Amino acid sequence: MRRLRRKKWIFSGVMTAAAALVLAACSNNGSNAAPTKTMNTSVTNEISTLDSSKYGDTTSSEVLQNSMEGLYRFNKKNQPELAGATKVERSKDQKIYTFTLRNNAKWSNGDPVTAQDYVTAWRRTVDPKNSSLDADSYAIIKNGEAISQGKAPVNSLGIKALGKYKVQVTLANPIPYLPQILEGAQFYPQNSKLVKKLGSKYGTSSKNLVYNGPFTVSGWTGSNLKWTYKKNPTYWNKKIVDLNKVNVQVVQTPSTGVNLFRSGELDYTTLTSDFVKQYQNNSSYHTKVTPTNGYLSFNLKRKSTGNVHIRRAISRAINKQQLVKTVLHQGKVSNGIVAANFITDQATGNDYRKDAGDLVTYNAKEAKKEWQLGLKQLGKNKLTLELLTSDIDDAKRVGEFIQSNLMKNLPGLTLRVRSIPLKSRLSNTTNHNYDFVYGTWQPSYEDPIDFLTVGGLFNLAPDYHNANFWKQIDLARSTYATDPQKRLNALVNAEKQLIQKDAFAAPLFQQGTSYLLNKRVKGFQLSPYGNVAYYWNVKMK
Question: What's the whole-number mean pLDDT along residues 442-452?
């Protein structure tokens, strides 16, 4: 999957009710109910922590994004706009940003949100003592990478408090995507007094935290499966928040979420692929394509998958359209590692994917040619390989489809599928105990760099030594950082080298997210990444 900032999980369940009854019940959900300012909703996993320096899961991210606020927040169009700051000034070299904070922003205990609160939070997150899953996000900040590796002191991070309401941020290199990445929960401020007072208890329950966002959180003890968002009376922009309360419960079995929605106990619940076909014509059904990638990543240390022709053959031998249509029932085919309809290039104004083009398409004939070349170089006429997946139902179904497809299109291939718990699957990939692996990965910000250097690309840095690829990445990060056209060319060249020529990974699809939503809910919004629900613009009609 990915080292996680905004983690994406996959679940599945079993439908037990008759489809006609389900549809009828769903179509009438809440339609005659009286107006209310309370919404009932669900998530698929419990909260791990509310410490923005330590979270690593989707649910915690969702809670933090509804109850906290950083320098930027996504607006209704999912574009970043200043939130905790009122003004930003940028130096000529585009490396130093000075943010003027709101002097009317307060924590839920009445304390002002200060520049020092940002300094405190950022230093905690990058400090290797805290083992933050988001420390790598700070590589964009001066000395961030060195600090996270224990090679520089924490106080050398490129952030300073210039008085009570001014924050100066110094970057390692100019980057065009700073607003998008600073929107993330890993860059939120933390109340300095409370952090000092609570120490390791900070964020371990809803009471061990104060909030500066649209809602406060109550009822989370650290392990329970229900909590509540309440409108934050100290939020500087509370006038936009219409809901008084959002009741959240963990629904670990998709069929349970469906049944609760049908009975009117939930206003929102997500759907797995099991349910999409049954609900796709229902008025309560919604779906969107996300930038989350489904992909294959290869082990270059194995003689078999270390062969470029074998990797190219596998990349081209999978009928991705059929996979999306018959197995996933949502999402779209991906022919490049960088997601489509997600990143607008500064040089052309086009979607990046349009500029980069289709790099790896389904081509059974070409796949067989590459396969034969690979077998010849290996001195074999047949080959046994193993595909590693997690043991989640959706992942196993994708693995079985790939198994069938490849053995049909690549003569002499015997493919075994090994499905194990996600934690073990991640450990196996880290330790090179696989031939190739299937997983999903979600970006953290809207720039090709994230896809090309992280992107579910297991063991990229230690194993992939193509000089041209790394040169193009370095040029995009530094020399061409302020030249949009040259930067675009470098990124496209890097992607072609990585995915098309060397087939380090094989893109499969962009994941879809589907859900049921009460028709009385207006203004509901999912994050640009498709996995986090925003409630501050919601109104119940």
Answer: 89
Find where tokens 């104004």 sit: 349
E strands in 7-79: 38-43, 72-74
Phi, psi of 492 (to 5 degrees): -65, -45
What are φ and ψ of residue 506, in 5° steps? Answer: -120, 110
- Kindly write down the DSSP assignment for every residue of 151-198, as one continuous string: SS-GGGSSEEE-SSSEEEEEBSS--TTHHHHHTSGGG----HHHHHHH
Q: Cα separation of 50 and 227, whole Å?
A: 12
Q: Give residue-wise pLDDT tens across range 352-375.
A: 999 999 999 999 999 999 999 999
What 8-state DSSP symbol labels residue 34?
P
Mean pLDDT of 151-178: 96
Is it the case that residue 279 has pLDDT exceeding 70? yes
AA identity, residue 258 = V
Show the domains of the chain with their CATH numbers: 45-250 (3.90.76.10), 291-512 (3.10.105.10)
**What single letter denotes the amino acid at residue 115?**
A
**163 Ramachandran zone, left/alpha/beta (phi>0; psi -120 to 50):** left
Please count the helices (runs of H) and the strands (runs of E) in the chain.
Answer: 18, 21
Query: CA-to-CA distance for 360 and 312, rounded, in angstroms?
Result: 9
CA–CA gap between residue 430 and residue 335 (Å, rounded): 25
Q: What is the CA radius of gyration of the chain?
A: 24
Find tokens 């020399």 and name the residue. Answer: 479
How many whole angstroms separate alpha carbon 255 and alpha carbon 226?
Answer: 18
* C-alpha 12 chain-centroid distance: 19
For 484-513, the pLDDT digits (tens) are 999 999 999 999 999 999 999 999 999 999
449: amino acid identity, one letter = I
Q: Is a pLDDT exceeding 80 seen at residue 323?
A: yes
CA dist 119 and 113 (Å) reads 11
Does the CA dihedral 77-79-84-86 come out positive or negative? negative
Interstrand relation of 285-298 and 436-441 (parallel, antiparallel or unpaired)? antiparallel
User: Rounded CA gap, 348 and 352, in Å?
Assistant: 9
The rounded distance, in Å, linking the Cα atoms of 480 and 19 is 55
> In whole angstroms, how far apart are CA 106 and each of 193, 201, 252, 283, 336?
13, 22, 35, 40, 44
Question: What amino acid is encoded at 233 in this protein?
Answer: P
Bridge-partner residues for 106, per DSSP? Answer: 112
The torsion angle over the Cα atoms of residues 359, 444, 491 and 478, rounded to 10 degrees, is -170
Whole-prediction pTM:
0.81
* HSE-up of residue 417 (Cα within 13 Å, Cβ side): 19
Q: What kind and span of H or E run contains 255? A: helix 254-262
